[in-house]
Amino acid sequence: MKTEEFYENKYQLENEPWEYSKKAVEILRHEFIVSLTSGLRKNYLRILDAGCGKGQLTFQLDGKSRQVYGIDVSETALSEARSKFRTTDMNFKSEYFFTKDNITSTSFPEDHFDLVLLCDGINEWFDDEEKRIDALKETSRILNSGGFAIISDYQKAKSFDNYIKMVSSSPLKIIKIIYFYDRLCYQFYSWFKAIEKNSIIQSLYKSRILAKVLIKISSLFGRKGAKHLFVVAIKSLLVFANMCF
């Protein structure tokens, strides 16, 4: 089981545990998430990025909402995110708040957010489905009526149907399912794992052009070409009414 201590140790011992800035596909995936948020609603009052880490995705949400919150179980990661917010030269349009919290049971009041991001994701964070369902229930609780959740995970294509079923069994209502065709990108990275510190290989990892080509080829295989599944869900008025009785 991946405990809070596990994630704290990862961030203490590794500069960037999930290499979000070292691989072009990760950068493109984050950009896709930001674009997806813009497509759902123009302006938000509050956005929550659950499992925000050092804020790689969180800071890309700047200007999308008056207030952006990031939560994580690693105080080391949160400390670095806070430091970046205080010391960077960027002129932030949003207010940022980074707090230690767990999405299965947060300290936020009900109906607090217009959008909650659970990206890379409840499958990574929790080993059992009960905890994953707890995270989805808590997401519904802290969303306001009509608020959105974007839920995604890195997984095998054969697991997609069970993942969709899991979200469907939560209080959230699925409104859209999107496949992100990144399977060949990760396959490419695995081929050069043994020599990934080589400067040429690192350049290939960071190549947006190469990543886009591999994504295009992956899309030809349909959902078998995807490693990430995005589920967009809403806290509907009907769901909200049912929770009150």
Give an overview of the whole structure.
The protein is 42% helix and 22% strand. With 245 residues, it is of the alpha/beta class. The chain has one domain (4-243): Vaccinia Virus protein VP39 (Rossmann fold). It has a 7-stranded mixed β-sheet, with helices on both faces. Strand 2 (65-72), helix 3 and strand 3 (95-100) form a beta-alpha-beta unit. The longest helix has 17 residues, at 24-40. The chain starts with a helix and ends with a helix.
Supply database-style keywords.
alpha/beta; seven-stranded mixed β-sheet; 245 residues; 22% strand; disordered C terminus; Rossmann fold; globular
Strand arrangement across the biggest beta sheet: 3-2-1-4-5-7-6
- Total strands: 7
Q: Helix segment count?
A: 10
For the record, what CATH class applies? Alpha Beta
N-to-C order of helices and strands: HHEEHEEHHEHEHHHEH
Q: In the CATH hierarchy, what is the architecture at level 2?
A: 3-Layer(aba) Sandwich
CATH domain topology: Rossmann fold
Secondary structure layout:
Elements: H1 4-13, H2 24-40, E1 44-50, E2 65-72, H3 75-87, E3 95-100, E4 113-119, H4 122-125, H5 129-142, E5 143-154, H6 160-168, E6 173-180, H7 183-191, H8 199-206, H9 208-219, E7 228-234, H10 237-243
Parallel strand pairs: 1-2, 1-4, 2-3, 4-5
Antiparallel strand pairs: 5-7, 6-7
